[in-house]
Amino acid sequence: MSTQREPQVVRGLEGIYVATTELSRVDGENGRLYYRGYDIHDLVKYGDFEETVFLLWYGHLPTESEYDAFRKRLINYRFLPENLIKMLPLLPQGTIPITAIRTFLSALAAWDPWAEDNSRDAELENAARLTAGIASLLAKVQRVRTGQEIVEPRLDLDHASNFLYMFTGKEPSTEASAAMNAFLILYADHGFNASTFTARVTASTLSDMYSAIVAALGALKGPLHGGAMEAAMRQFIEIGHPENVDAWFEKALAQKRRIMGIGHRVYKTWDPRARILRERARVLAEKSSEPQWFEIAERLAERALNHPYFQERRLFPNVDYYGALVVYYLGIPPELYTIMFALSRVAGWAAHVIEQHADNRLMRPRALYVGPEHREYVPREKRT
Ligand code: ACO
Question: How far apart are CA 158 and CA 56, in angstroms?
Fold first, then answer.
């Protein structure tokens, strides 16, 4: 009798632990999320995106002087290489924004003297260049593709406000800056989701940070991962008016259509990020000329939360449900929502690359071969 265990195939790696991490802890049963032990509620309430990024990369919250120095480093990297900016209009009209960003983010490596250096110090520098760079790239790419003048970065604004300034050409309101900061903090890291895992697999070959992050962006692009925020907003737009919610909901149920922005693989209660972004969306909606999108979302969520179908399956609004509204009210069009996700998650991906390289083991799982065995080779002229 063979003592070898039958190989088990776990499709989608569901429930498999492939590494340890000190970056984020997702408590799906209780609806809590911690970055390096800090509750996200506290990080949003008291801090900003820069502080969260510092925490993820360095392992502790910055002192005043560490914070100032870190902020200055990110500000330096808001300025993209001149020749890279000249490349922005060269892609064909109609190139989808995430394809453009993936291309230019990859190109940025060519101007980075430490791009091939996987030492911790070099990677912390590369991470800063990538995190600041993707925000400048998105703002610039959008202005070029919509035929507007590029807006140069401001040195006096924080990362979130400067992005909105470069994107819209106007200094954001206090509420808009706070909402953007909350959005960026809340999307920064979330365990071993598909794109983070992709980054870590790439890093595990001792490839460089740029390659890992471009690979992660490719994984994020898929509709099963980063595409839900855009789909949620398009669904609110399709509903059109709060009075249409009830009929739309009944029809969706009858057609077994999924409500985008509801349900989560890990959270079986409210996604804590959704609750925070809901309040930010409420504030922005009150000041907006289009409050109906928030009203539609609220009414739809209420219908779902009170319906036995959703209650039995423990389906609650997730981060993308209210994240979509926040970015909509910040003036970002839906075709950019997947990159908005990346604008924040790039910091988490970078932290994971650093963590992977600090204690590397090549990720090399196996596939169970189920194809034909022992086939006889027939020369081409004899094949029928
Ligand atoms: N609307 C209606 N029914 C749903 C929904 C939904 N949004 N989500 C799950 N269900 C139902 C399924 O049809 C299934 O029903 P059944 O048991 O009768 O077959 C049951 O709930 C369980 O669904 P699964 O797909 O097995 O649950 P899973 O944990 O794999 O799915 C997922 C999680 C993919 C997020 C799912 O809830 C979904 O598709 N939601 C909509 C898309 C979305 O919002 N994605 C963003 C996730 S958050 C993020 O990526 C940042």
Answer: 18
